[in-house]
């Protein structure tokens, strides 16, 4: 019996190579199929905008593919684990490795090492690529696939309260005193929340204080009158700093940006439990790839001729998909305040790590 955690270097490279090839094959297949279906559903909206053509379709694909990769990489690792281990089992390679004195953990060690590397790569890919593509795609979608300002900080659908009144913007770009709002609507309300007047403007800029509406058009609700106004300043109680933290999208910010946003919201006395859960999940989420070989390991052990290989593969898939269901449910509970953010992000990972280890030990016995 070997005392080392890993088998021989040759066997480690062999198993890791099999695993990586199957992960890439499954991931490419899933991304191609899902991207094709998604493009079919969105291409009509994109091409329906005057001036859009093939270049905009490719732009949409380039922004959507990183999201699909980030979302389905753990599924690809799970399916690749089951395919790899079921194939090794069916070819009696697992029996040969155990006859050579390898334990179940040593058989899985190359897969776990490969999954750990994939988790690190996934984290870096999410932080450097996915957050940026998500921010750009959401802003472009909010603009109904029309041209958007070349600003990485564009945010769609921002609502800002100023006492009983509300300032709404279709999208916000820029920072500080250079903040610019597009598709702006100012709702002047009474103390009971009833809208007295609605002012619409294509643009708004910071007037220090307040926000200057360009080419505003007023609609008097009581008198049902529509009047074109001169440039008007509204919402004098709203500052660019408030605009900056008015809408924080955790999917469009990396861990550093999201941390600063959370601290700014806390300084304003705002509730941040949902954002804190998302912040912790940026670390626990990529580790799902590390968990998949452990959950799918049930497909590796047991005699193939017993006729239970398919059942074992189904059990491995069920454990993997159960993790994703519990993970999403825990995040939802954290958003409602049912769980602390730290527990909501990490409890499913630790729970299924124990479940996978228990199943592996019982299977080996």
TrEMBL record:
Chief subcellular location: membrane
Pfam families the UniProt entry points to: LptF_LptG (PF03739)
Transcription is among the record's keywords: no
Membrane topology, as annotated: Multi-pass membrane protein
Compartments it resides in: Cell membrane
Record carries keyword Transmembrane helix: yes
Transmembrane region(s): 14-34, 68-87, 107-125, 309-326, 338-356
Origin: domain of life: Bacteria
GO cellular component: ATP-binding cassette (ABC) transporter complex
PANTHER family: LIPOPOLYSACCHARIDE EXPORT SYSTEM PERMEASE PROTEIN LPTG (PTHR33529:SF2), SLR0882 PROTEIN-RELATED (PTHR33529)
Protein name in UniProt: LPS export ABC transporter permease LptG
UniProt source species: Novosphingobium ginsenosidimutans
């Amino acid at each position: 019996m070997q005392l080392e955690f890993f088998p021989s270097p040759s066997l480690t490279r062999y198993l890791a190579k099999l695993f990586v090839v199957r992960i890439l094959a499954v991931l490419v297949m899933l991304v191609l199929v899902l991207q094709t279906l998604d493009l079919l559903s969105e291409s009509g909206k994109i091409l329906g905008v005057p001036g859009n053509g093939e270049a905009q379709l490719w732009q949409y694909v380039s922004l959507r593919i990183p999201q699909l990769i980030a979302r389905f990489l753990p599924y690809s690792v799970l399916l690749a684990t089951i395919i790899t281990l079921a194939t090794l089992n069916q070819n009696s390679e697992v029996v040969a490795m155990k006859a050579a004195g390898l334990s179940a953990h040593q058989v899985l060690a190359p897969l776990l090492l490969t999954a750990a590397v994939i988790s690190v790569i996934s984290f870096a890919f999410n932080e450097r690529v996915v957050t940026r593509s998500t921010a750009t795609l959401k802003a472009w979608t909010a603009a109904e696939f029309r041209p958007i300002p070349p600003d990485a900080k564009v945010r769609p659908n921002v609502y800002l309260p100023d006492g009983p009144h509300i300032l709404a913007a279709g999208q916000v770009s820029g920072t500080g005193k250079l903040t610019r709002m597009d598709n702006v609507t100012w709702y002047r309300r009474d103390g009971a929340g009833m809208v007295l007047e609605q002012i619409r403007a294509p643009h708004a800029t910071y007037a220090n204080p307040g926000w200057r509406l360009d080419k505003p058009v007023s609609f008097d609700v009581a008198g049902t009158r529509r009047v074109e106004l001169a440039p008007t300043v509204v919402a004098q109680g709203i500052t660019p700093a408030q605009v900056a933290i008015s809408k924080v999208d955790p999917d469009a910010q990396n861990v550093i940006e999201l941390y600063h946003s959370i601290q700014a919201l806390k300084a304003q006395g705002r509730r941040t439990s949902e954002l804190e859960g998302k912040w912790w999940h940026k670390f626990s989420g990529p580790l799902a790839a590390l968990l998949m070989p452990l959950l799918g390991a049930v497909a590796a052990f047991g005699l193939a001729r017993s006729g239970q290989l398919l059942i074992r593969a189904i059990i491995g898939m069920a454990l993997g998909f159960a993790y994703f269901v519990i993970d999403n449910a825990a995040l939802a509970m954290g958003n409602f305040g049912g769980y602390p953010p730290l527990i909501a992000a990490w409890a499913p990972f630790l729970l299924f790590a124990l479940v996978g280890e228990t199943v592996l030990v019982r299977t080996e016995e």
